[in-house]
Amino acid sequence: MAGAGSRVFISHLAGVAVFDPNADQVGRVRDVVVSLRIGGRPPRVLGLVVEVVGRRRIFLPMTRITSLESGQVLTTGVINMRRFEQRPSETLVLAELLDRRVVRTRTQEEVTVLDVAMVQTRVREWEISKVFVQVGRPSRLRKAKGETLTLDWHDVTGFSLAEEDQGAANLLATFDQLRPADLANVMHHLSAKRRAEVAAALDDERLADVLEELPEDDQVEIIGKLKDERAADVLEAMDPDDAADLLSELPGEEAERLLQLMEPDEAAPVRRLLTYEENTAGGLMTTEPIVLEPDATVAEALALVRIADNKPALAAQVFVCRAPSETPTGKYLGTVHFQRLLREPPYTLVGSLVDDDLDPLPPDTPLSLITSYLATYNMVAAPVVDESDHLLGAVTVDDVLDHLLPDDWRDAALHTPDDDGTYGGAHVDGTYGGRDHERQATGGR
């Protein structure tokens, strides 16, 4: 553990790996839990919120931490894997203090919180000691618009007040490198008010990617708090199948209003998807697979496969069709798999390489038959065609999994212990710290 007086800025802990005494990684830090105190006393740091396997968030008391040095957190061997539940008396530093507008007591001017630092006291407790602030409002990219200062905790006021418009610039800067699924997990654990602030601060493309990873309830909540014009822009940035899934959860009039605001060519595939039953090939498919005409070359096919925005399941093959190449296409001819493309000269025409042995799926194919098709033929995507052999789209394995798992799978804890009764080497004793005095030391947790 860092010695007494050692200062740690909390934004630097975001995403830091947590290890047990055997050097096995337990998880990563997602936030810090503090307890605000009366009388201007600095908040006491209770522990860390750590994300473990399956995106479960657990509470790690400060009494269980042996080191906060060298860009990692070391713990004792006993960790409670019970899901973290925030209590009314607790505050999350990254989620709730960053971007807050507070008052500098000496000048009575409003400042914005960019970061806070904690320090270990002589009695080996941790408390918030410093507040890093900016005079003037920071931009979304955290570029300075005014003077930055590091103040003592007692030099600012306003942390206990409800925040009307907190913003989210510095919270987003802290988690800027997260994948969409991980940022979605962060947002899911925020309050509804804070979640709306973060959504408002994200650009359309980033918000679209995050919405695709959120549970349906969160999606509906967020899209409902956006202005209609922006909601339509975000829906346009989403994959058509995900946009259709979200719109299907909205009241009919609201969904139609948003469709009317979307660009016609963006709304058209979404409208088509909404006409199919949910658990069928038509309802599950994406309308944007990689499609080439038969006179395209292997070099052209590989160039499309390399586009970073293509999901791995869609980039595993190209579908060869007669013109037009936008869905619904001309006559579907067959599939060319990525491995075959790698084995052929770049000037080879894809029309000479098509695999037409497997029948495509009609749009009314039920989910059970889709899963059997993918499993039987070891496919990660299957073409969907209409009765005239026009390619309508493709069903990918990730979309099938979304519908096979329970409705609340994004919320569910998927963490299971190893054969030796440990979680990645961290022993579970079924208690909060295992001893009553440690339970008291962490505020009763």
What keyword list fits this structure?
single chain; 445 residues; alpha+beta; SH3 type barrels; MgtE N-terminal fold; CBS-domain; 7-stranded mixed beta sheet; 6-stranded antiparallel beta sheet; 29% helix
| Oligomer classification | single chain
CATH fold-level assignment of the largest domain: SH3 type barrels
The CATH H-level homologous superfamily of the largest domain: PRC-barrel domain
Number of strands: 20
Mean pLDDT: 84
Global geometry: elongated
CATH architecture of the largest domain: Roll
CATH class placement of the largest domain: Mainly Beta
Output the structural class.
alpha+beta
Q: Any idea what the radius of gyration is?
A: 26 Å
Proportion of helical residues: 25-40%
Number of domains: 3
What is the straight-line distance between the termini?
Answer: 22 Å
